[in-house]
Amino acid sequence: ADASDARARARGARTRARGRKRRRTRAGDDGANDAPDARDAFARWVLDLSRARSARAIEVRARASEAAIERDRRAEADATVEETVEETVEATRARVAYSEDDRRGAKALLEVAREAFEDGERDGGRAGAREMRGYGLRFTRDAARGETVLELRGPRQLITAQSCARTPALAELARYWLLVQSSAAVRTLVSRQELRQWRRTRRARALAPWAKKEDFEGDGYVIDPTSEQLHLTLDETLLCCFLALEKKKGKSSSHYEYLSKLPTLEEYQAFIPAYLPMPYFVNLFGYGESKAAYGYEPRCNADLRWLILERHRIERAVELTYSQIVSQVTYGNSSSRVPTGSRGNEITAGEFRWAYAVVMSRSFQSPNPVSNDPWRDMFRRMDFCGIFMAPGMDFANHKRPREVSYVSSDGFNGNGQVTMKALRNFKAGEFLHITYGAKGNTDLLLRYGFCFKENVEPDGSSNDRFRVDKDDFRRFVCGADDEGAVKHQEIMLQLATTADYTYKPFVELLDVARAHFVEAEPILLADREDAAPTRDDDVWDQEEDVFAANGTDTEDEEEYVAMYGADEESLKTDSYDGDVVSRDKHSARLRVETKALRALSEYLSTLQLVEPPEHADALALGKADVRELTSYSHLRELARIWRASRRRTLDVYALAAHTRAESLLRDFDSADTRRGLSSPTARAELTPTRAQLLASRALVARLADAADARVAADALATARARVFRATALWDSARELHGHP
């Protein structure tokens, strides 16, 4: 408006000026006598007009500049996902070179059918007080060993996280997931561009000390290893949303036949402890034990603590992922096939929980590991990586040892391929079983809802690994029950017929007790740091045999020579040179070792999970929340089997400590060692206490009929005896040669 008024006034001034000029020309006047205010007025109007035009131009340029900056800012945040999706959608469609005939042909040998499991079946039984029925894979004809029984290829037969990320329907989800993870509130991801900016401003060392040189190059993001992962990973989130959206399609989905056979959310909540409501979960393992484990109380159960914390972690990750990411995204109609504007294209919390239960219990891992950049893994990499779903193949149930071998590869253009071959001859009507991996009963119970009484490998080693709190054992030895645990270090105990897998955790626990009892032996305090020889990882590796437990005599002799510089035969005797190693020092070592073994045996033999009462359901839950749960009694039976497996593992280690302590006591009473006693009081210190006697008697009674457990305990005690003798010979050689 101001510019328009200025232009109008300027036009009027010019018109009047031209009229005066014409009149002067007719009168012969050159205009020298005109009033100066007329010329000044004209100049002012021209100046106002130029100022108005300049102001308007400046404002227009400023707005254009701001809009350009905003567009660049948005493009910078969205280009990494949007441009990649545009580039890869057509490429992904172009790489799909498989027909429906291939899919039908690959599955012609197998069919999905109901499979029954009864107590006592399958190598000690898949647990269950009654017959359990679920889907499995059954052969429709005979199959020979080495024959390919199943082959899944490409996006039409496999549901991969990469293919989900490269669809326009889930592009917004992937972009928003990256936005949340790289936000200041979460900061589990850092963009490479932001890393380069920190490096330019010399803040990279302070803000990202973990960053490597290659993290500053290229586009994408880098995982911050110092941050806590609060949400599900990108591949898990994409697969969950894809399954939930496909489920909403109903019969129009290309995966309807597969999705219709999957368990419902109610079935997952009834059969899998990871989805069991917390009151039922606590009641399943006992309220008192659960409270003690969650509160890190003395003598608590470390395995139950892990179960509770892992269930909390899963529940929190699912809830946060849904509330902060999944529920904030509107999904395209190309995936959901629901009219725009309706609430049908949204994923509900129940649908997302069901989808995650499916992904958690039925997904497979691709052959190529993921990197620390989820954006590159999902959008840039051309090889097969991340987790994936194999419809049809995931109906096969778990069994070890394995009956078939399946290999996942990149396939055609990185679309993925899974090939399964028979390892034995199958007849028509038999069910095919795969292996979920060498998983222990703790993991099987929590994530899959079953466990085995005999979860062992062909070599006799058990897949079960149970936890013992190292700090809790230290409190038990020191007698400080009120002292809180600080580091919460856990040691994994595993059963095996040889000492290959059992010796290392056994010695770690034993060293805790020895460190306490050595304080009462002044003669050992001076050289406590040099009491044990320097370990060679090539000799003391956990996977290797422990001195003649396995291998040839030549290999064992080489291990002894490499460790101690002595031959094996010299270590087989129990006698020691009293002129070299003082008899008082040897007696002190025997006392420390025996006391530590007694304490370890008592601790492990009494560390058990108390079984809750049979009818604790109504007492713990209350009448308002009590429901008829036949599946709950099934889970209670599973919990009993899990407790028995844990009790057996702890008893084997306790029996090994008890056996070795009794052997040392006999050595202490022998003719060679009795001369080293300074007083009868020293012998009395090795006498077991009443609590230790009761614990050892109960221990021996529990394992009276377990021949394999006694064999494992004897192997562990023998390995400890060999190392103890070798240590004494090492000390003898050091003092003989004058080493400090």
Structure description:
By secondary structure, the chain is of the alpha+beta class. The protein is built from 29 helices and 14 strands. Helix 20 packs across helix 23 (583-606) and helix 25 (630-668) packs across helix 28. It is elongated, with a radius of gyration of 38 Å.
Provide a quick synopsis of the model.
The chain is α+β, with helices and mostly antiparallel strands and 740 residues long. The strands form 5 sheets. A 4-stranded mixed sheet has the order 1-2-12-9, with no helix packed on it. It has a 3-stranded antiparallel sheet with strand order 3-11-10. A 3-stranded antiparallel sheet has the order 4-8-7.
Chart the SSEs and their pairings.
Blueprint: H1 2-27, H2 36-95, H3 100-106, E1 110-117, E2 132-139, E3 148-153, H4 154-157, E4 159-160, H5 161-165, H6 171-181, E5 189-191, H7 192-200, H8 204-207, E6 221-223, H9 234-249, H10 256-259, H11 265-271, H12 278-285, H13 287-294, H14 302-324, H15 333-336, H16 349-362, E7 364-365, H17 374-379, E8 387-389, E9 397-398, E10 404-409, E11 417-422, E12 431-434, H18 441-448, E13 465-469, H19 470-478, E14 490-494, H20 503-517, H21 522-525, H22 553-564, H23 583-606, H24 616-621, H25 630-668, H26 671-674, H27 680-684, H28 690-702, H29 707-736
Parallel strand pairs: 9-12
Antiparallel strand pairs: 1-2, 2-12, 3-11, 4-8, 5-6, 7-8, 10-11, 13-14
Helix pairs in contact: 1-2, 2-6, 9-16, 12-13, 13-14, 14-16, 19-20, 20-23, 23-25, 23-28, 25-28, 25-29
